[in-house]
Specification:
The chain has about 250 residues and is α/β, with parallel strands linked by helices. The chain has a single domain, classed as 3-Layer(aba) Sandwich (Rossmann fold). Helix content is about 30%, strand content about 15%. It has a seven-stranded parallel β-sheet. It has a three-stranded antiparallel β-sheet with strand order 4-8-7, covered by helices on one side. Strand 2, helix 2 and strand 3 form a beta-alpha-beta unit. The radius of gyration is 17 Å and the shape is globular. The relative contact order is 0.18. Bound molecules: 2-phosphoglycolic acid. 2-phosphoglycolic acid (PGA) binds next to loops.
């Protein structure tokens, strides 16, 4: 039986980014109306850079594609410098021919956050579901902002961010973890697992230990990414540094 998630190991983070960007470009040529789920963070930056390059050099066409971002901070308006909407504009959307009306974000400044989460789930369903969900992973094993805990919400919901997650996002807030919002909205693990294909990117040795647990460990809510073992078409794309614990004898 094929183990899931599949593991693909590349020499450098650039190799990971190039390979995934080429795959997305090929998938867009095949299905220009593709629905993509997108992450933020440091890890996908090289991937977005590659997509921008492929758009410039090879006319990869985003005009009919739809995107849904995984998460957003609570309390930030869309134009806030630290919002993930701003992040996506800066690193991808301003540099490709995507239709802004087809890019979807959670609104962390919505008056009723529960309604906002429901609206997001409805929009994903109305778009026909997510074809390819791309994910990063926190060193604590979170995906999206599904933080480790005794239980997880299946669907899009409000989360309390853990201190380590706020610290790792400090760069977006002038380097000060105390300025990072305490709460966020995030797709749930069920939302993520319903994507037709899921690809998790992990690079660098700080991710090696949790990657090893995602691949070899039990499924547990204390390591949300381990739930990818339940997905029939999930893949980890790793550089050698993030894969280093997989070489060790178990
Ligand atoms: P990173 O964040 O890519 O900046 O390491 C990943 C995450 O926390 O999901």
């Amino acid at each position: 039986m094929q183990r899931t998630p599949r593991v693909s190991i590349f020499t450098t983070p650039h190799d990971v980014a190039r390979t995934l960007a080429r795959r997305v470009a090929a998938a867009l040529r095949e299905n220009p109306r593709m629905v993509l789920g997108l992450p933020t963070g440091r890890t996908p930056l090289l991937f977005y850079e590659e997509l921008v390059r492929l758009h410039a050099d090879q006319d990869v066409d985003f005009s009919q594609a739809t995107t849904f971002n995984l998460d957003e901070f609570v309390g930030l308006t869309a134009g806030h410098a630290g919002s993930y909407r701003t992040f996506m504009r800066r690193f991808l959307f301003e540099h490709v021919n995507i239709d802004p009306a087809r890019t979807h974000f959670l609104d962390g400044a919505a008056a009723d956050l529960a309604d906002e989460c429901e609206r997001y789930e409805d929009s994903i369903a109305a778009a026909g579901g997510i074809d390819l969900q791309i994910l990063g992973i926190g060193t604590n094993g979170h995906i999206g902002f599904n933080e480790p805990g005794p239980e997880l919400d299946a669907r899009t919901h409000k989360v309390t961010l853990r201190p380590e997650t706020r610290s790792s996002n400090a760069a977006l807030f002038g380097g000060d973890p105390a300025s990072v919002p305490t709460h966020a909205l995030s797709m749930g693990m069920g939302t993520i697992l319903h994507a037709r294909t899921a690809v998790l990117l992990a690079t660098g040795e700080t991710k090696a230990k949790c990657v090893e647990r995602v691949v070899r460990g039990p499924i547990t809510t204390t390591l949300p990414a381990s739930l990818l073992q339940l997905h029939p078409d999930a893949e980890l794309m790793l550089d050698e540094a993030a894969a280093q614990e997989l070489d060790a004898p178990s």
